[in-house]
Structures are given as C-alpha cells and as structure tokens.
Amino acid sequence: MSVNPDVLGRTYPPIAPYQVSREAVRAFADAVRAESPLHREVEAARAAGHADLLAPPTFAIIVAQRAEAAVVGDESAGIDFSRVVHADQRFTHHRPIVAGDELSAATTVDAVRALGAGAMVTFRTEITDLDGNKVSTALSSLLVRGEDQ
Amino acid sequence: MNITFESLEKGQEVASRTVALSRADLVRYAAASGDFNPIHWNEPFATSVGLPNVIAHGMLTMGAAMQVVADWTGDPAAVVDVQTRFTKPVVVPNRFGTEIEPSTGLNITAKVAALDEDERTARIDLTVTAPDLSDPAVPAEDAAALKVLVKTQVVVACR
C-alpha cells in the first residue's frame, strides 16, 4: 500500500494562523469566476450583513491544504505527492469566511484503505477561528497511485 | 440568503454557465490558491507523471462550477455545504501566441435535486462537462464531452 496505515486517526499540528485579506478574497473570486459584488466591494458585503468581504465557498481550500501539507510532508506517512490524485472534496461551512478573519486548521487522517497497489486516504480538516470556534469542516480524499498505476 | 424556499421546485434548472479556460487561468488559480503543483502549468512534468497534458486544478473546476450556484443565490454565504467527486481531468492544451486564447471550457448546469422543508434548504446538483482533449490528434470541435465532476451537490439555505 502506498500510504502507511499507522497514520489512521492521527491529528497533525495546526497551521500558523492564516489571516484572510481582502486582496486574497478578490484574487480567489477572480480565479473561480465568481460574479457576486460581495467578494469585491466592502460596502456591498456590509449591506448584505457581512463584517467585510465575503470569501467564495471554496476559498477554505487554501487553509485546508496548508493543514493537509503536514500529513503529506510527514515522511512516516509515506505519501509520494507526485503520485497523488484528488479524488473528492467536501466543505461543510459552520459560518461564512470573511476578510479580516484569522483562521487555524488541523488535519486528522480519517480513513486509509488499500486500492490495488495504491491507497485512498481521507483527511478531515477542522478550520476554526483563533478562539477555537468552528468555521468550516473540509473532507478531502486523495488517491495515492501505486507503482504500476 | 435571498432565495425563497417556496419558489423552488424539484427538477428546476436554476443556473447554467460556460467557463472558458486557458493556461493563464490555471496560473491565476495557482497564485490565488497557493497550489503550485507543476501538473497544472508544466507540460513536460505533467506528461512525465503519465498525464496526457497540463490539467486544470480539480479545485478550480469545482470552484468555478459551484460558483454558478453561489452567484445565483445573491448572497454566496447561503451555500452551507458543497461536495464533488473528481472523475476525469480537464485537459488544458497550450494555445497562445502573443494573445492568450482559451483552449477548453466547462459546461455547467445546476438543477434543484432535493428540498428539505424542515431545514429550509435546497440541494442543487450540478452537471459539469468538458471536451476530451487528451488525444492531440482529435480536433477540439470533434472532442467528446466528458463528465469531469460527479456527485456535485451544493446545499443552499433559503428564506
């Protein structure tokens, strides 16, 4: 199997706090072709009841992937990143992310299963504010191809 | 949340969009997301790991697809849950001289799949296709449409 099964259930250390900037929100909105002014105009976001610019719903991937990097970079996990294929992704938002937020995130390995010579590994990343309140839960499954796949 | 629950019917198409993609769009997404995996911008690297060509970030495809629903809501904070499965890569061939031209595109359609009266939420399911450009000998206009995402579901909180 292309992933060490002993990592199952392991929770990796949280990321250094990530501060959501207005420009990061605007750049991400442009990149995914978001059209809503709530991602770009502070007044429009405030008029809709948000504290500042609203991040697009998949913006959370930036923070989630920083946390997942702890697993991928853990040599004992044995994940060869050049053989990784993103298999599925889910976000459950407990509240919207807005510019000015300071976020933390930590990844737990929720599942590891053999798939031929390869393996499917599922990460659960809890994104929180710096007081520990839940912001978003990200579930990512990666297919790590084996030698002949 | 600007969508009224009672205004929705199962099966109703709520949004559709075509998103053209060029290599420049992949570089833009790499910068915005921090995902600089070379399979998304370096063709020799992509082919060396067994891919047909440079491919789009799965999260660019997912983000652009579900954004159609987010924009439809009027307030994207209404999106409380979003998920997808990545089935086929979106191949993005090189096509630019001095002007950047898109070389592929996503076709996205969003329909109401389920309504939860207790939670006042709607599950919107997306169909997302892109041309199969994995064989450079097949011209883009003759390429078959591939379902690049499946089980793409967006849960929207309604008024």
Regarding quaternary structure, what we see is: heterodimer
Run of helices and strands of chain B: EHHHEEEE
Strand content of chain A: 25-35%
User: Which ranges of chain A are low-confidence, i.e. pLDDT below 50, for 5 or more consecutive residues?
Assistant: none
Please tell me the overall pLDDT of chain B.
95
Annotation field: number of helices of chain A: 3
CATH class category of the domain at 5-20 and 58-144 in chain A: Alpha Beta
Number of helices of chain B: 3
| Broad shape of chain A | elongated
The biggest beta sheet of chain A is recorded as: 5 strands, antiparallel
At CATH level 3, the topology of the domain at 5-21 and 57-89 and 102-157 in chain B is: Thiol Ester Dehydrase, Chain A
Helix content of chain B: 10-25%
Mean pLDDT of chain A equals 95
Please describe the biggest sheet of chain B, giving its number of strands, its sense, and whether it closes into a barrel.
5 strands, antiparallel
**What structural class should be given to the helix and strand makeup of chain A?**
alpha+beta
> Strand tally of chain A, please?
5
Main β-sheet, spatial strand arrangement of chain B:
1-3-4-5-2
The CATH homologous superfamily of the domain at 5-21 and 57-89 and 102-157 in chain B is named Hotdog Thioesterase
Keywords:
heterodimer, A: alpha+beta, Thiol Ester Dehydrase, Chain A, B: 159 residues, alpha+beta
Q: Would you kindly provide a written description of the structure presented here, covering whatever features stand out?
A:
The complex is a heterodimer of chains A (149) and B (159). The longest helix of chain A has 13 residues. Chain A has a domain of 103 residues: Thiol Ester Dehydrase, Chain A (Roll), CATH 3.10.129.10. Helix content of chain A is 19%, strand content 33%. With 159 residues, chain B is of the alpha+beta class. In chain B, 21% of the residues lie in helices and 34% in strands. Chain B has 3 helices and 5 strands. In chain B, strand 3 and strand 4 form a beta hairpin. Chain B is elongated and about 50 Å long. At the A-B interface, helix 1, helix 3 and strand 2 of A face helix 1, helix 3 and strand 2 of B. Strand 2 of chain A pairs antiparallel with strand 2 of chain B. Chain A: Pfam families: FAS1_DH_region. Chain A: It comes from Kocuria coralli.
